[in-house]
Specification:
The chain is an alpha+beta fold. It has helices at residues 8-12, 18-51, 53-72, 75-80, 93-106, 139-144, 147-162, 165-192, 194-198, 207-243, 246-260, 263-268, 286-295, 300-307, 319-322, 343-355, and strands at residues 85-86, 113-117, 124-129, 132-138, 388-390, 395-397. The strands form 2 sheets. A 4-stranded mixed beta sheet has the order 1-2-4-3.
Length: 398
């Protein structure tokens, strides 16, 4: 990940080595494209097994067309599906004030638009591409998060835009969909040919292809999930650098985790819900994300210990944050929490910047007298009526 321009002065003063930052950016890009390349290779193998050399060409053509069309879709068109409404500055002054500062700090050439979705759930996401993007959040989130927490969330989404994560994930999603479609088509063809195989009409079963048919969608999905988790960690780091306030984003993550612990789960599963295995999540475990954010406030040698998994969680996550995290049962074993190669050095370098105050310029979310008050006291785009399940739009709508 490149160093934001507002930190370049600190870089030039050897607070963090310039070549180290470039090395980490290269390693980050390598990791991303290895995961994307693995997905593309899986698609190419499927195409070759089912359709021969021509299948690779067809997959590349149709995949390229699909990706081009997906990248040309206007964010406003996507957000209309969610009934999102672009907010004027006078309707949501805090959000626009924070967005102005974050855009200036990030060096984005084009300011993302700000949308609010009428929903009682808490969520936020970014859509579009670098030259035409938007940040959307639900009305409930805007009226629940404090200024500091909202700044952390918005900085996280801006980091996604700045790092071109939206385009990378679009590539991975397109490849995964084509792999699943090809697998479904292959399984259907195998099913239709079962009578010939059963009655021995000179039909041989390509067992290698059958195995690929069964496991290709799962492998593609796991690669996509791994890519998503890697991009989330980088967006968290970028958000901490942009705001200079890891605590703000950590507090927001706790509130989002609490919101996901639905009321009915407390009734049906009074002992706490069983968390999904780490490899099956689009986002890393909230505790892991908070641990890394809190590590930015530690000394470099301590960060090395945390990254190696030799430091207890209680030593890094403050008790006040841990107590607010929903209690979960440990029915599913947790995947090893060791950090990836090179991550500790990168976090250590950026921690020096934060601890030296280089990223702590005055900001409307931290230095405001009401920084711990809700970002919006009034409804912006509130939902009305009773919630309805709409299958065509894939969720619960008001």
């Amino acid at each position: 990940m490149d160093v934001p321009y507002f930190l370049e002065a600190a870089v030039s003063r050897n607070t963090i080595d310039f070549f180290e930052s470039k090395k980490h950016a290269a390693l980050n890009a390598l990791q991303t494209w290895l995961l994307v390349g693995g997905s593309i290779l899986l698609l190419a193998v499927c195409a070759y097994v089912f359709f021969g050399p021509d299948g690779i060409i067809y997959a590349a053509i149709f995949g390229g067309i699909s990706l081009f069309m997906a990248s040309r879709v206007s964010p406003a068109m996507v957000l209309r599906m969610y009934k999102a409404r672009e907010t004027a500055r006078n309707h949501f002054p805090v959000g626009h004030e924070i967005l102005d500062v974050l855009v200036e700090r990030s060096g984005l050439q084009n300011r993302p638009k700000l949308y609010v979705i009428p929903s009682k759930m808490m969520n936020a996401f970014a859509v579009g591409r670098g030259d035409d993007s938007a940040i959307a959040m639900t009305d409930q989130l805007a009226r629940t998060m404090t200024r500091r927490e909202l700044a952390g969330i918005m900085a996280h989404e801006i980091s996604h835009i700045r790092n071109n994560d939206l385009r990378v994930m679009a590539i991975a999603d397109t490849v995964s969909r084509f792999t699943s479609a090809m697998s479904t088509f292959g399984m259907l063809s195998l099913f239709l040919n079962l009578p010939s195989i059963i009655f021995g009409h000179a039909a041989t079963v390509p067992w290698l292809a059958v195995v690929l048919l069964i496991f290709a969608p799962t492998m593609g999905s796991l690669l996509q999930l791994a890519l998503s988790r890697a991009r989330e960690y980088d967006a968290d780091l970028g958000a901490a650098l942009l705001t200079g306030d890891p605590d703000g984003l950590a507090s927001a993550l706790v509130k989002l985790e609490q919101a996901q612990n639905a009321h009915w789960e407390g009734i049906v599963l009074p002992g706490g819900r069983v968390p999904a295995p780490s490899v099956l999540r689009t986002h890393p475990q909230t505790e892991d994300r908070i641990e890394r954010l809190m590590a930015l406030k530690e000394k470099p040698e301590i960060i090395e210990e945390i990254a190696g998994g030799r430091r207890g969680r209680g030593d890094i996550i403050p008790d006040r944050i841990r107590e607010e995290l929903p209690k979960r049962s440990s029915g599913v074993p947790k995947i090893s929490r060791k950090w990836g190669r090179g991550e500790a050095a990168r976090y250590s370098g950026y921690a020096n910047l934060l601890n030296d105050g280089k990223a702590g310029d005055p900001a409307p979310w931290r230095d405001h007298p009401h920084s711990d008050a809700p970002a919006s006291q009034d409804e912006i785009n509130a939902p009305h009526g009773k919630p309805k399940i709409r299958v065509t739009r894939g969720g619960v709508w008001w």
